[in-house]
């Protein structure tokens, strides 16, 4: 018997399901590209020149920051932004960032930390001419990577200088370019037409790896179980990326990167990161900003309590080697003005109001994003 999952027959229902689950794909893409970025390394000679040419095309001068003093050894944050532009017929230039993950890398601790930020998080847009509140994923659509970094930085009270944004276009080639991934399913399940058997080690291509990583509702551990499978896939990508066999597919991988990724990290900084931080991928931790469902106007949001904002800020600052600081921003201000809000009600239809901090009056601005 062939131990590879059978290729599915794509029906209209399956294609619609694929579109419905595109946001989950983006999150997996981010993890894989991140590990590939840190784990592949920059080789010498002609390969070095190919890598430089590919990554030079990803450089975004509009959000450039001075990197002359970047040694590649100090702790730093990178905001990862995942978009599905270019997929399923979407033609937006930017679109909203469906996935946002703040990555903290600390060489001294040999640690890489991932802090996921819910796309529906209520946040003040930083960098606009006037007061404006939207879901945090709209920052990228409104003001590009610069606004996304500034807004996230203000919400969590942490410094953010660098970003990497990516779309779904290069996913399949990247996974297939490293020769696929090898996994051992912890349970038996079928998802998107692929069947996986508990305890049976299989080698997956890009499409199969996505299906394996995305299933949640049939897993007794829920989202936690999905995270474990995602980590298994990511670590397998890293293992294969570090192998010599990956070099033969490097042109395909780099071609995918050059068309699907944008960043304000220079190639020289990437080389330093690749050389100095690869060991950090052996010590990865993940967390996420825990929100409470609420209605703002006619839209569903995630609002964060002061305690949760402080907890998350403390974690990231500690990973950076910074002292904790009391959170004092628009989000804590809005919480203080919503004294009627019951954080423990469990009612996601509970109303949450936005106030203009200049007047302390209700704000009725546009929340179309």
From TrEMBL:
<protein>
    <submittedName>
        <fullName>LytR family transcriptional regulator</fullName>
    </submittedName>
</protein>
<feature type="domain" description="Cell envelope-related transcriptional attenuator">
    <location>
        <begin position="96"/>
        <end position="241"/>
    </location>
</feature>
<feature type="transmembrane region" description="Helical">
    <location>
        <begin position="26"/>
        <end position="49"/>
    </location>
</feature>
<dbReference type="InterPro" id="IPR004474">
    <property type="entry name" value="LytR_CpsA_psr"/>
</dbReference>
<keyword id="KW-1133">Transmembrane helix</keyword>
<dbReference type="Pfam" id="PF03816">
    <property type="entry name" value="LytR_cpsA_psr"/>
</dbReference>
<dbReference type="InterPro" id="IPR050922">
    <property type="entry name" value="LytR/CpsA/Psr_CW_biosynth"/>
</dbReference>
<comment type="similarity">
    <text>Belongs to the LytR/CpsA/Psr (LCP) family.</text>
</comment>
<keyword id="KW-0812">Transmembrane</keyword>
<keyword id="KW-0472">Membrane</keyword>
């Amino acid at each position: 018997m062939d131990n590879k999952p059978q290729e599915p027959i794509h029906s209209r229902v399956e294609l619609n399901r694929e579109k419905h689950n595109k946001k989950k794909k983006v999150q997996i893409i981010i993890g894989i590209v991140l590990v590939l970025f840190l784990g592949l390394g920059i080789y010498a000679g002609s390969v070095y020149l190919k890598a430089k040419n590919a990554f030079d095309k990803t450089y975004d001068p509009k959000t450039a920051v001075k990197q002359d003093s970047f040694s590649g050894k100090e702790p730093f944050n990178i905001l990862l932004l995942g978009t599905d532009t270019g997929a399923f017929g979407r033609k937006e230039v930017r679109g909203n960032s469906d996935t946002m993950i703040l990555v903290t890398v600390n060489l001294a601790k040999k640690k890489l930390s991932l802090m996921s930020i819910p796309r529906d998080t209520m946040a003040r847009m930083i960098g606009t001419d006037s007061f404006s509140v939207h879901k945090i994923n709209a920052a990228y659509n409104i003001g590009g990577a610069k606004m996304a970094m500034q807004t996230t930085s203000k919400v969590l009270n942490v410094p953010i200088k660098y970003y990497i944004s990516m779309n779904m276009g290069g996913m399949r080639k990247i996974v297939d370019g490293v020769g696929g991934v090898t996994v051992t399913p912890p349970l038996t399940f079928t998802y998107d037409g692929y069947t996986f058997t508990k305890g049976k080690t299989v080698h997956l291509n890009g499409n199969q790896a996505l299906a394996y990583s995305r299933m949640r509702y049939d897993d007794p551990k829920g989202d936690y179980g999905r995270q474990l499978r995602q980590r298994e896939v990511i670590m397998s990508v890293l293992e294969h990326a570090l192998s010599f066999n990956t070099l033969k597919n490097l042109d395909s991988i780099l071609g995918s990167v050059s068309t699907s990724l944008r960043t304000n990290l220079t190639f020289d900084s990437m080389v330093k990161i690749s050389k100095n931080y690869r060991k950090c991928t052996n010590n990865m931790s993940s967390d996420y900003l825990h929100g409470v469902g609420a209605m703002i106007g006619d839209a569903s949001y995630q609002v964060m309590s002061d305690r949760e904002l402080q907890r998350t800020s403390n974690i990231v600052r500690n990973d950076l080697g910074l002292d904790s600081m009391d959170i004092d921003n628009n989000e804590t201000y809005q919480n203080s003005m919503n004294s009627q809000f019951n954080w423990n009600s469990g009612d996601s239809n509970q109303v949450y109001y936005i106030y203009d901090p200049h007047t302390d009056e209700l704000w009725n601005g546009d929340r179309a994003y």
